[in-house]
Please model this.
Amino acid sequence: VGLRLEAWALQGLPEVRPGDDLAALLRDGGYEPGDVLVVAHKIVSKAEGALRALDGVAVGDRARELARDHGKDPRLVQVILDESAAVLRAERGVLICRTHHGFVCANAGVDASNAPEDGTLVILPRDPDASARALRAALPHRPAVVIADSFGRAWRHGQCDVAIGIAGLTALDDWRGRRDPRGLELRATAIAVADEAAAAADLVRDKVSREPAVVVRGLARHVSDDDGPGAAALLRPPAEDLFL
Amino acid sequence: VGLRLEAWALQGLPEVRPGDDLAALLRDGGYEPGDVLVVAHKIVSKAEGALRALDGVAVGDRARELARDHGKDPRLVQVILDESAAVLRAERGVLICRTHHGFVCANAGVDASNAPEDGTLVILPRDPDASARALRAALPHRPAVVIADSFGRAWRHGQCDVAIGIAGLTALDDWRGRRDPRGLELRATAIAVADEAAAAADLVRDKVSREPAVVVRGLARHVSDDDGPGAAALLRPPAEDLFL
Model:
């Protein structure tokens, strides 16, 4: 008998607001040892107050120029720039940015939808790995925690959820050096387990009806007592990247 | 009660050889209506004879040059070029190619590991959407079929399985125009359902011990009687791509 994966969303969570105790809200997940809890970053951001009000934004020259060229709100663009270490592409109204964490994604992860009130933007948590570790430590049976966001991809349409914060789940399962049944070395392979777990969780999440937390069961072999290096281990250094 | 996703690998499959009837090998999966069968492309390629023997390869000048510059077998490089519409990057021993199908991946999907015998390369199926449709049609209860391969990503370490052939599963679940609980339009969102299903399936697959077929249950809402446009719908046209 092989492995079996199961995933389901926690039901009945309230709207999360700044200052909420996320661990208290997520406490009754019925976790078993070895479970993985995948949480949409938005509720982490909201609980932590990782929000920006459009009203208070002082717009600089670069934001004004980008906003004009791409038909965007200059205040939104300024917040995107504030969250970015670099703007990699600005074309056809899309800003692809590298965030201060090192994630490459549209608009540096800044999002106006699902914000707690009009005129407020949700930004990414300041340190998603730390957020994941704190949440894990506060939950019964310490499930591994993945904080997920939906990222577009180069070359392919559509978005997949990926891990932007991890505590206790293998980020990369490195198969390099292992051999196939005939003894040949396998093609260089490091499976992005946490990203695949985030993707699996997304398949059961209803984004409109508030299902931001998903339990994934069946990955215990990738769950460690130690919190591990987090999603930082997934970031390819810019100097090694072929597509910057 | 929300959605529930389950995934498990079929057990006891034999080594697949050219000319094998894949549908016959996969017939006893216990499929229920609405199931998705995710199949590693390698067994499709092997059954279809999508293989190249290194011995018969006539190496051209460009392959010889690339092989020299990147420390690769010139015959392997020639097969990679044969499978490629374009070589996008050739750096540090890595060839990132766009295949004739339009997929962007390392080595145009050409793989020497897990080949049926030494000196043989497994290439991608000629028309993976057609392969998926044929397999679906021949299986009891016509599960949706996804043919998967492991692709690296720009900007992130590690590989995730993605769909290179699809029959009967939504490739992109388009949420554009839908609204959040406050009535705000959701951020442009098209969820790459078939890619996420491929990723979920990969989490239960043991790549060494021959578990190339995974049943994913719980996605019936994305399974259609019609086979749909296939994985071709996932390909961003080169003219629209910001990272070519």
Q: What stands out?
A: The first strand of chain A starts at residue 4 and ends at 9.
